[in-house]
UniProtKB/TrEMBL annotation, chains A, B, C:
Superkingdom as given in the UniProt entry: Bacteria
Active site, renumbered: E151, E302
One record GO biological process: carbohydrate metabolic process
The UniProt record lists the keyword Glycosyltransferase: no
Recorded GO MF terms: beta-galactosidase activity; metal ion binding
Keyword Metal-binding on entry: yes
Keyword line: Glycosidase, Hydrolase, Metal-binding, Zinc
Reactions this protein catalyses: Hydrolysis of terminal non-reducing beta-D-galactose residues in beta-D-galactosides
Family: Belongs to the glycosyl hydrolase 42 family.
Name of this protein: Beta-galactosidase
Organism: Planobispora siamensis
Annotated Beta-galactosidase trimerisation domain residues: 390-572
Amino acid sequence: MRWPKGLDGLCYGGDYNPEQWPEEVWREDVALMREAGVNLVSVGVFSWARLEPVEGSYDFGWLDRVLDLLHEGGVRVDLATPTASPPPWFSLAHPDALTVTADGARLSHGSRDTYCVSAPAYREASARIARVLAERYRDHPVLAMWHVHNEYGTWCHCDHVAAAFRTWLRGRHGTLEALNDAWTTSFWSQYYSAWEQIMPPRATQYLPNPAQVLDFRRFLSDEMLGHFREQKAILRELTPDVPVTTNFVFGDWVPVDQWKWAQEVDLVAIDHYPSENPPEETAFAADLARGWAGGRPWLLMEQAVVTYTGPRMVAKRPGEITRLSLSHVARGSRGAMFFQWRASRGGAELWHGGMVPHAGPDSRIFREIRDLGNLLPALAEACRDPVEAPAAILWDTEAGWALQSPGFPSTGIGYLEAVRQAHRVLYRHGVTADFVHPSADLSGYELVIVPSLYLISEDAADNLRRYADGGHGTLVVSFLSGIADEHARIRVGGYPGALRGVLGVRVEEFLPIGEPVTLDTGDTASLWTERVHLAGAEALARYPDGTPAVTRHGRAVYVSTRLSDDAYARLLGLGSPAPVELVRRGEWLFAINHGGGERKIPGNLLLPPGGYAVAKVPRPG
Amino acid sequence: MRWPKGLDGLCYGGDYNPEQWPEEVWREDVALMREAGVNLVSVGVFSWARLEPVEGSYDFGWLDRVLDLLHEGGVRVDLATPTASPPPWFSLAHPDALTVTADGARLSHGSRDTYCVSAPAYREASARIARVLAERYRDHPVLAMWHVHNEYGTWCHCDHVAAAFRTWLRGRHGTLEALNDAWTTSFWSQYYSAWEQIMPPRATQYLPNPAQVLDFRRFLSDEMLGHFREQKAILRELTPDVPVTTNFVFGDWVPVDQWKWAQEVDLVAIDHYPSENPPEETAFAADLARGWAGGRPWLLMEQAVVTYTGPRMVAKRPGEITRLSLSHVARGSRGAMFFQWRASRGGAELWHGGMVPHAGPDSRIFREIRDLGNLLPALAEACRDPVEAPAAILWDTEAGWALQSPGFPSTGIGYLEAVRQAHRVLYRHGVTADFVHPSADLSGYELVIVPSLYLISEDAADNLRRYADGGHGTLVVSFLSGIADEHARIRVGGYPGALRGVLGVRVEEFLPIGEPVTLDTGDTASLWTERVHLAGAEALARYPDGTPAVTRHGRAVYVSTRLSDDAYARLLGLGSPAPVELVRRGEWLFAINHGGGERKIPGNLLLPPGGYAVAKVPRPG
Amino acid sequence: MRWPKGLDGLCYGGDYNPEQWPEEVWREDVALMREAGVNLVSVGVFSWARLEPVEGSYDFGWLDRVLDLLHEGGVRVDLATPTASPPPWFSLAHPDALTVTADGARLSHGSRDTYCVSAPAYREASARIARVLAERYRDHPVLAMWHVHNEYGTWCHCDHVAAAFRTWLRGRHGTLEALNDAWTTSFWSQYYSAWEQIMPPRATQYLPNPAQVLDFRRFLSDEMLGHFREQKAILRELTPDVPVTTNFVFGDWVPVDQWKWAQEVDLVAIDHYPSENPPEETAFAADLARGWAGGRPWLLMEQAVVTYTGPRMVAKRPGEITRLSLSHVARGSRGAMFFQWRASRGGAELWHGGMVPHAGPDSRIFREIRDLGNLLPALAEACRDPVEAPAAILWDTEAGWALQSPGFPSTGIGYLEAVRQAHRVLYRHGVTADFVHPSADLSGYELVIVPSLYLISEDAADNLRRYADGGHGTLVVSFLSGIADEHARIRVGGYPGALRGVLGVRVEEFLPIGEPVTLDTGDTASLWTERVHLAGAEALARYPDGTPAVTRHGRAVYVSTRLSDDAYARLLGLGSPAPVELVRRGEWLFAINHGGGERKIPGNLLLPPGGYAVAKVPRPG
């Protein structure tokens, strides 16, 4: 992790798109930024067409003036390479660099992200604009950080991608025989006798090959990472001291393996847009970001001043902007950034909200933005010690991808839902959790939860066995874990495959259900049940037919069904719910009352509705 | 407005497609038409392939015989140019003239409307068949009117369209700089440095540019209007005395700006197919048609003998065909026409119904058709005076298009729903409303309603200000009005933008809601709320938090939420609901009882269930 | 019907895909097959890419070893031609042989069934691999039967298909004039003046031509049948004594007219995967298969060990595998086969289940498979006499296709639902039904049901008239029967068209409904009502307005609405429901208790819950 030089304390600001406004607005912007305590803005994320309006012809004048103004105003810049949206002239000159959908439609420009990451022309143009930008601003004192691209995640299925996919597959599998074996191509006559026969998973007649789809997501992640690394190398060469990052985005569709990417960025940064339950989603996203960052600081690069639910944009309640930002900071973010500084008056996201809303600075939103900006500097001290987490939840992006295949025994399963439940139950009981990779050192945790880790390597399975056998703490594994190897091939002989030994069970059949059932413990179980045989384990709870539902083998617990949240909490022995959100960092306790009532918190403090405290509170006991 | 010479009184008839039937049926058709009082039929709407079965080779024999037969039978003809459906030979010879979808699929012939209005070959072929047709029948006495094309509204995204769109954009914006500014292309790197970079809004990676989409709909409207005008010029040249029209169709997807088109047609004609509530939808459509026609007569060109709801075709109740036709006539239609004369026995719309159903003339439907035909001539006198409307509702097709953009703060908003509510509330209270353009002279109305007029020019805003300030009557503006300029760019500084002054309010935030709330008046408000600051206005109703919900500033009322229909009626001071549908034209009162009970109407008349009256009734008071 | 030589009694086994497993597994497979009583397996269904990994280069070694092992183990082989899934090298060499969707997207390989049946290259390659396979194994004693292709049903819309469609249309219609008339191309200007103008029903602007769509399904069926016949001719030439079959699959989308195909296969075979109500769906499918087979034996080629409902795979209850297999056998299947022998560990259908599940032979599933295998040989004697069925239900694949057109007066109608209701009501009352073609000799049946036979020829209508007038039994016709001729053109003058005479009614209007209504009999009617005039018939039940709903004319009953199941049963005079599933074959009675209670059956036997009996039981009375 690298941190921008000269940028002490916490970052505060957002995406700043001055090119959408006349220059007279820029001066008001900088004055308002000063008023709001803004110290960092992301500039140029979508500016390619304004920086290079014609191929090879650059217009840096406006950006020069913007950066100088910001510098004068004391605001540092997270300068973006604008490669997420190539200009119209580029697409017109290189139609082969436009995205192609799975069913062969070549997309048009006119939105954003209209590129193919494998297209040679796009790669060249990306490197060129990154170099030109770095050469121009390498010595500008306003430059704090590089923001490469934006929210990597664009799928393409064109012939460039096909060629790159084949190259990647050669690297991964070595030989065609190995690939045929890994992909089980004997099924449905898919055996490949030459590399050029292999295609991306394009639209096809019926179900696709799940191993091919999984490898394609791995490939896309690596392919985009290659694009990132090319830019990073240029930026490193020209500005060796400036950290380089990109902003991760959440979503089932995102083909980015953050574990791998986190090794390449100088600072993990995320964009986070909660929808249903902002406090819980915020804690989840922040803990995940901290996990990707290996426990080191990271940065909330984008959030919004409103909440985007599916059917509507809900205004954040008074203080909510601050509370959610505080939750991010408590969980390791080195600041709170927004999309975007000033709400747009045109373009596709003109309703997206901004720190300065359409109504202008004379508005509740801007006043809250200003208040938050005044609060943040005071929090720096409380952020020095690391976040303390007694529990770990295993997270594996690849396993989640594998579980998105069509054809599973129930359409109700989902990796994210399984992981979220584990996190939610801990969160509601005040237990902070780290997200860790399956191969991580687990010995420091009292509790390790493995939610539906469908795909697991033998090494990772050994890691879990060592944890449980080593007496470090309790291992809790839920259904659909351990089933498949890295090529999504099922381990036969009895589920849960690689984890049968450590769990002391053998599962004979999956029995997904529609209506919930009641276990002999009185707990409710839904979605999924199994026919479990004890093979060393004892039953902690049983299905109505008397067969085991939850088992324990030494310190390894197996949950063969989806428990209700309450039952899950009881199984984990979590006691009563926490009064408010609580995060401890050394002597400091962060307490945030997202709810509507007055709450008593550790240290005998009273938090009013919507209140928060960051205080030195001795550990209980 | 021009009216067919020699066609006095009201028109009665429908689409007549004799080419689907053997000649022996034609004679029965004409006999039945006479029996039913039919005096006008639309012929040849989809006859191109039968008129020109091979390129340049015409077969007019059958049409000659049909027209002669109709003439002998005393039925006049609204003769169609058949350009809505080019023949298969045309598509095969000119595949570039087939429609291309937004995602690049070129559609096949085999349905109807399979053409690109911008394809040169299609334009040429359209002009040629129109000329040939006019040359052949210019002197036929049966010819009453020209029916150009059918239900204009076909979208295309092909390269011909792209080229035409660019030409149109040059005309509209003049320079690329103006276009870039109007479209806010600085957002997402969409800046265009050459005209050829601009594309129609084809399938793209993510959200499209709303200004581009809006201009594309304007372009499509103008492009199709160009096609209409080309044919009109030919027909005018050859038959200077014959009126030329086309039939407007309703639907969110229709890219036709009827205000512009109404200037070009000799007679506004509409096709109307209600679904949920036929009487209310009929009044709405008829008032809209009268608005487009500038208050002059217009023509209901198509209706059906059944009601098409989504899940099924519901038979019209006894008398319903007459009552709905009467409603159209009362509101300004110079007749009642149907699709179609005789229900088809094959083809895609064989279940569409007809004046002569599959069962033949010995049927309830044909008997009702005959009764209606016998009634209509008696109504001509009552139709001499104009429809009287004390209220006006602003209608702007472009504003409605703009409100269809994705990304609004609530997915529940809709222009049509907002306009329909205003009309529905007036209708149910017996208040006839005109639909008028935002720039229309409003001084004659007691009440002007502006429902969700999202996009408004400064001139139109001035027009509203003059109306309210002039003391002519009450101006009622509902939420999401006045927000954007003609390029769909938001007016910043506070909503409702251009209408802040006249309304005396400043809105700081939009607060869309899920569950309804109750105002301090006891009224129910749903979907949408706002944070309203009074700036001269007073509050008429307040939200639960005490902030203003409905305000009044002089005679200008602002409604920042969706009121229930009842609350809306109370706000407008409408009194009790009308007993039946009532329309006044001078001394004549049209009264239609669509419901199931006996109703007392002005003039101390009693209308039985399903009954109607057209009578001279003195004005009350 | 031909039966494999040397394969006495009932077949037992499933699809066997040894190429997915290492050779050491093969020996375990054969040992387990012997243990389970397996005597027939389908081999090679998807093996093309492993048999011909490079064009013209064959690898039969593995298959030689597999067949030898099976032969040694006493298991016979239903050897598949692998043409359902061409290898990747084929698609790469012949991209024109890949499927094209209706909107013009060319599908990729990477699944199964990625071919165009009209592509010359595919036809040639199919014939070649079939010949090579037959030449190699013609004398292998393990060869019992040929399994051509798999589940025919792939649609394609490419230019090869277009050309073949035109050729087929010439054969069917003779002249363009006849085609234009049959298709009612006068509607919407679709008149064809040259054959090359005719296209498959590709994506088009609006509704397609229903006659074109219907002919396209007929064409696809014939085109695939041509592919089948080419292979059959090769196999017959090389192995004149080996029966040739293919496996029919169920589904609204399947373009296979089984009546025609049944004439070409040596043995009717079906794949059956019930979803909602397995016992009823099994009886339905089995009776249909027996119908296609003309009452002769047929074969259940595929079933699963689990039930695939939409949202999940439900484990079959204890004994359910046996009960459903027994139902198939009772209703004429010469065995019970499964997909597949051993559950796959990779590939798209790795969760599809198998006779040997992932858990291996130490599992409930395999134990039930073994039990079933031990039971089947004892049933051969009971299967000698034909299945006895007093009732017939008319089934016409083409009529079902015609009823799938868009635009019917109700979206709730469906051919399959209408037929299923008739069958379900009989099934629940213990009445076995045959499915028969509309032209079949009906004189032997006490009851003939005609559910929604929309499309009917005059000959078939005469056949029904002869049945009813001949006093053979009761004819029950339900709504939407007799309406259209073979070109889907409506018979005008009054519904139900061709059946007006025999039914003694004239229907004037269709009146589809949303909410159910109650007839004067107290019965409930839903979905559809009609305005029925008696023309010789008497009313058996009336709508609330007093018009006839159900009528009788001699022995011909007309049902103009959808009756509830109970009302349907009362109308048919069916008495009380049967206690269990009952099928009689001569002296033998098959009784299967699918339910949860003890049931008394004919012969004074008691069946425990889930029990079954195959016993000589004298006929009642």
